[in-house]
Amino acid sequence: MNKLNFEIRKDLVNDNFTIFSTQIIIDGRNLIDSLKDYELRFVEKGSENIAGAYDGLDPKVLFANLTNSEDEENSKEDKSDILDCDCGSRGCWTFMIKVIEKQDTVIWTGFEQIHLGKNSANFWDYSDFKDFEFNKKEYFKKLNELLTTHNNV
After folding, report:
1. Which has the closest alpha carbon to 140: 74, 78, 73, 69?
2. Cβ neighbours around 7 below 10 Å, total
3. What is the tally of structural domains in the chain?
4. Superkingdom of this entry's organism (predicted)?
5. Which residue range is the domain that position 73 belongs to?
6. What is the pTM of this model?
7. How far is CA 125 from the centre of its chain?
8. Cβ-contact 122, 64 below 8 angstroms
9. With a cut of 50, which residues of the chain have pLDDT below it?
10. What does the DSSP assignment read for 6-56?
11. What is the sign of the dihedral through the CA atoms of 19, 28, 108 and 114?
């Protein structure tokens, strides 16, 4: 089983506006770093900066996306946004996963960079990027802690 944690980053844009982002930590490593290492195989020399060019979502958005999962029997192709572009523009460089909820586990699979999917001219194939499997009880405990922590920041 993989271990899931979250870190909330608070960025002050100006005196009146704060942005929160959630860093997803799996087995002690930031998911963005793992994706960057994996995605470097797909980029051309000179454009390495697009590999792992993600930032975390607002904690409330991530919580909603990750708790809208499908059970194993009624699984569908809908995917959840878990990361977005590091430029701050929603939908610019979205990374998605399929969340499958089983009896005792939750699985993250079906990884996809939305602009470089199967129908794109430059397909980034995540089939070798190993699925993550979490203990269901721990998974929802961590998600609830994320929301509670954010509400108290």
Report:
1. 69
2. 13
3. 1
4. Bacteria
5. 4-151
6. 0.88
7. 16
8. no
9. 70-76
10. EEEEEEEEETTEEEEEEEEEETTEEHHHHHHHHHTTTSPTT-GGGTT-EEE
11. positive
